[in-house]
Amino acid sequence: MKLKQLEGLLGDLEQFSNPKVELEQYPTGPHIASRMLFTAENSYGDITDKVVADFGCGCGTLSVAAALLDAASVIGFDIDPQSLETATLNAEELEVEIDFVQCDITKLELKGQIVDTVVMNPPFGTRKKGADMEFLPAAMKVASHAVYSLHKTSTREHIKRAALRDFNAKSAEVLCELRYDLPKLYKFHKRKEVDIAVDLWRFEPK
Amino acid sequence: MRLIVHNMLSCNIRGVVNKFPLRIEPEKIIVKEVDFNPDFLKHMIAKIDWKALVDGARSMGYTELPDHAPDTTTLESDEPFLRKFHHSLLELHLEEGSLVCSETGRKFPVNKGIPNMLFHEDEV
């Protein structure tokens, strides 16, 4: 599948109908999602024929992208039942098979080495302080090969240090810097649209 | 929920020793065919908890799996086995039912194929 085709398909997905601000529910746009998964597969072979977990899957954008790139099995994890309903519809619409689990990913212990790759667009910690740093260790415990994650560029040094020192990372690399377009989703948003610099990270667990 | 997912879920309640696997109490099961990928399956044999898979499949009504996975050296030519493995791991869906912790009896409901693994505050 070509990148443009993937981006096009992801653009048709349903997104949050009533986003919950406390969960930092923001859609992962097709531009970022397609590039993230395309890079994971084309540069590193981490998606096709692999078991891929999507932490904080929301409406399932990254999960669907992984499935479209022929992951052998995709599992989406999220705490919010409404998002999971939308994610289920999205998977049906695109005719891909994805398993979903409702849980608090920071409290769930996944057994064994079944998951090869974790992909995620975790909360940035703007509502619940430190939320960005809860998803990462959870992902590092589960992935046997690689974790792909988005974090604000402003937190780059902090993330790198934490990953290598505390979260069992053998390597922590920024693959590229992307602009995350956030449309005005919540009442407290003053500007019509805002652009945040985010890093696409690849971490390898030891 | 397919058995590949069941094979990683455990009961994280504080103090529980026998967390895995969760027992399956099915109410509605559906079967959805997916493409057979023998290379992927051979790669998975070593990673799957075999007993959990066999017991899980049995509780979903599929009894064709052997008690032990065959020797990996013979897998190359054992297509009938790989087909059974494929079917149990990836084609059986628990749509409605529960996952039950063997130690505490705590039930995690499964609705529309999605298990609810949220713990209560006092459990973790």
UniProtKB/TrEMBL annotation, chain A:
Keyword terms: Coiled coil
Gene3D superfamilies: Vaccinia Virus protein VP39
InterPro entries, sorted: DNA_methylase_N6_adenine_CS, rRNA_MeTrfase/Polyamine_Synth, SAM-dependent_MTases_sf
Database matches in Pfam families: PrmA
Chain segments annotated as coiled-coil in the UniProt record: 84-111
Hydrolase listed as a keyword: no
Protein origin, superkingdom: Eukaryota
PANTHER family listed in its UniProt record: RRNA N6-ADENOSINE-METHYLTRANSFERASE METTL5 (PTHR23290)
Protein name, per record: Methyltransferase-like protein 5
Gene: LOC104730449
Automatic annotation (TrEMBL), chain B:
Recorded coiled-coil stretches: none
SUPFAM superfamilies the UniProt entry points to: Trm112p-like
Pfam families named in the record: Trm112p
InterPro entries for the chain: Trm112 (IPR039127), Trm112-like (IPR005651)
Entry similarity comment: Belongs to the TRM112 family.
Name assigned to this protein: Multifunctional methyltransferase subunit TRM112-like protein At1g78190
Native organism taxonomy: Eukaryota, Viridiplantae, Streptophyta, Embryophyta, Tracheophyta
